[in-house]
What we know:
Helix content: 25-40%
Radius of gyration: 20 Å
Distance between the termini: 39 Å
Amino acid sequence: MKVLPQIPLDPPPAPSAAEMQRRADTYYAEIRRRRTVRDFSDRPVPRPVIETCLRAAGTAPSGANKQPWHFAIVGDPAIKRRIREAAEAEERAFYAGKAGDEWLAALAPLGTDAEKPFLEIAPWLIVVFQQNYGLGPNGKRTKHYYVQESVGLATGFLIAALHHCGLATLTHTPSPMKFLGEILGRPANERAVMILVAGHPAEGATVPAIDKKPLDAIASFH
């Protein structure tokens, strides 16, 4: 196997310790305001903004650099309508008992239900697919590595990029999601993992009053 040629690293200028802390504080102050939103405006978002955020997502690390993700971007009202109808059909079964009592009890404080109007109202739906294996030029399967981890990293990059642009997002995961591949005509090697709803929050939008775990509950230094 031929080894890729090595090129010089092009890092940003090394900041001082004080500047690193300032940047860390600034980023934390920005990202901590990110909230999952369910009330969206139909206010348009320019496609080039979404495209640049997707480029940022594409810089995420991945197993063996296979980049096993595909983002299907939906702005067409008719397709959004089909996705909403199919998603709500799955959600009605979910809330009717398919999820089980424990899961439904955990969701109850958040006030969610089977109605998902945001799937039509928000200007963009970004359907995230994971490629379980690759397909070479001759149609031969190629192995992908750490697929779920890689796609999760890219999706996190995307959510952060959209937030940085001043946009709201919602990670929506109807189950099962096979209908997404069918509606969007994706190949058999891809599996939908979520719908990322993106747009501006509706005027007067509210979010649940939740707390995030403190640092000592999510991290340990050794």
